[in-house]
Design goal:
Layout (H helix, E strand, L loop, with lengths): L5 H15 L6 H8 L3 H13 L3 E3 L4 E3 L1 H6 L7 H16 L2 E8 L3 E8 L14 E3 L4 H9 L2 H8 L4 H17 L1 E5 L6 E10 L2 E11 H4 L3 H14 L6
Antiparallel strand pairs: 1-2, 3-4, 3-8, 4-5, 6-7, 7-8
Length: 237
């Protein structure tokens, strides 16, 4: 049985309570519904307001545009849960931080990006499929997959790409980090680590930038990203 993740459960409960209401919901009503202190609920509500998932009209809280933009068929809740985590990593590394989902067997989709502090930087296209390999996040997903899934997936990639991944897979499992050093875009380097909820790998978090700038920093960026992800409760169990 999956263990409850309190942050996830409370955010979902707030959104569901507001969605089910016929009129704006007050903070007191939300706290009563969640059986939680108002101060605790207020912290989550502030985050939801900041990200556009809730709006306040003076009478209480209602669903904001973010729900319709990100929680529909093409959206994801991950930017809400991990936005501040990505922002912290982007600030501390200075590079672009992205969240990627595995979509089907052979694709990843970037669903969120925190921009780099540098004018010359990696600027990913969001909500577009791209091949699982050789992206750094795709390597994280495939390294964590079962043997049958991995073998079936690798059949769809060219022998050089598959062989390169197989040469890296044990290192990825051991360290939790996967690298892309100019394999997809010649002058872009990236390092990825996994994001877990209730022990399950749900996303890849990537730090990326011009290879000429990040080449010697990728391992450090990766370890920093792991530390932040784990501190926020999204590391492996």
């Amino acid at each position: 049985m999956n263990a409850e993740h309190r942050t996830v459960s409370r955010i979902v409960a707030i959104l569901e309570t507001v969605a089910a209401a016929d009129s704006p919901v007050t903070l007191s009503a939300l706290a009563a519904s969640l059986e939680a202190p108002k101060s605790s609920v207020h912290g989550f509500v502030r985050g939801l307001l900041h990200t556009g998932y809730l709006v306040e009209d003076g009478r209480g809280y209602a669903l904001g545009a973010g729900v319709h933009a990100l929680l529909g068929p093409t959206g994801t809740t991950l930017p809400l849960l991990l936005g501040e985590t990505c922002e912290e990593i982007a600030v501390r590394t200075g590079e672009t931080v992205t969240l990627a989902l595995r979509v089907g067997e052979r694709s990843v989709v970037y669903v969120h990006a925190e921009p780099s502090a540098f004018e010359v930087c990696y600027s990913p296209r969001l909500r577009q499929r791209r091949p699982l390999l050789p992206t750094s996040s795709g390597k994280v997903f495939l390294a964590a997959a079962g043997a049958e899934d991995r073998a079936r997936t690798l059949e769809h990639f060219s022998p050089p790409v598959a062989e390169a991944f197989l040469a890296e897979v044990e290192g990825i499992r051991e360290t939790g980090l996967a690298f892309n050093r100019g394999e997809t875009v010649p002058d872009v380097g990236a390092v990825a680590t996994g994001v877990h909820i209730d022990g399950a790998l749900v996303a890849g978090l990537t730090v990326a930038g011009p290879l000429s700038r990040v080449s010697s920093q990728l391992e450090r960026h990766g370890r920093l990203a792991q530390e932040v992800v784990r501190a926020e409760g999204f590391g492996p169990s």
